[in-house]
Design brief:
Layout lengths: L1 E12 L8 E13 L3 E6 L5 H7 L8 E6 L2 E2 L4 H7 E4 L12 H8 L7 H14 L15 H13 L5 E5 L7 H12 L4 E5 L3 H4 L4 E6 L2 E6 L1 H15 L1
Parallel strand pairs: 3-8, 3-9, 6-7, 7-8
Antiparallel strand pairs: 1-2, 1-4, 4-5, 9-10
Keywords: ATP-binding, Hydrolase, Nucleotide-binding, Transport
EC number: 3.6.3.-
Protein name: Biotin transport system ATP-binding protein
Length: 237
């Protein structure tokens, strides 16, 4: 279970007049528990939704309050939390670091007690799971955007995290690849928390959070949440 207790995230912003730096609120305070199998987070650009997602595996730490994953505090138990919570970025190039797909997945597996030969076998099995078996030794830069996102997903899931957090995983994809990635995420056994601009995908979740101006302004039924978000955006326009 993911639990946020009175979480506030702030940052320092330079004063354009040359005075002391100002403290800016990015998110919060937020208190909630996430137990559903599929949770979607929607909101406008700059609303704080990515900050919320990054709190869940310790990529962002709260300025005050606590974030816990199965009782582990992201601030004190960061390494243990990241073993439980995998994270996918919007741009797969932000997390693909090795020359070939099989090497990239094998790198993720280095934290497990496997021999190099066992890592290679496990890496190729992970690639096959996502239809990339025949791309194992192709240069990563030669893959399509959709294939790179599948590779990023394979690398994250190879270590079998209990929870997967995805920050707009389909934003850079065309319609075909968006459907492929959405279908794969929907079929995962892991709890999935996904930040998305795709309201059709959000409607398939068990629960939707709407974030606006650093606050969770709606939390609940997907259809009602999407309707609330649409109305919010019309008012903003």
């Amino acid at each position: 279970m993911i639990a946020l207790d009175d979480v506030l995230v702030t940052a320092y912003s330079p004063d354009p007049a040359g005075g002391a730096d100002r403290v800016v609120r990015l998110l919060g305070p937020v208190t909630l528990e996430l137990v559903e199998h599929r949770v979607a987070i929607v909101g406008a650009n700059g609303s704080g939704k990515s900050t919320l997602a990054r709190l869940l595996n310790g990529l962002v730490l709260p300025s005050s309050g606590t974030v816990r994953v199965d009782g582990l505090d992201t601030a004190r138990d960061g390494a243990a939390v990241r073993r439980k919570v995998g994270f996918m970025f919007t741009d797969p190039d932000a997390q693909l670091v090795m020359p070939t797909p099989v090497e990239d997945v094998a790198l993720s597996l280095r934290r497990l007690p496997l021999t190099p030969a066992e890592r290679d076998v496990a890496a190729r099995a992970a690639l096959a799971r996502f239809g990339l078996a025949d791309r194992a030794e192709v240069p990563v830069h030669a893959l399509s955007g959709g294939q790179r996102q599948l590779l990023a997903l394979a690398s994250v899931l190879a270590t079998e995290p209990a929870i997967l957090v995805c920050d707009e995983p389909t934003t850079l994809l065309d319609l075909r690849w968006r459907g492929v990635v959405d279908a794969l995420l929907a079929d995962l056994e892991q709890q999935v928390v996904v930040v998305t601009h795709d309201l059709d995908a959000a409607l398939q979740a068990d629960r939707v959070l709407v974030v606006d101006d650093g606050s969770v302004v709606f939390d609940g039924d997907p259809a009602q949440a999407v309707a609330h978000y649409r109305a919010l955006m019309q008012v903003g326009a």
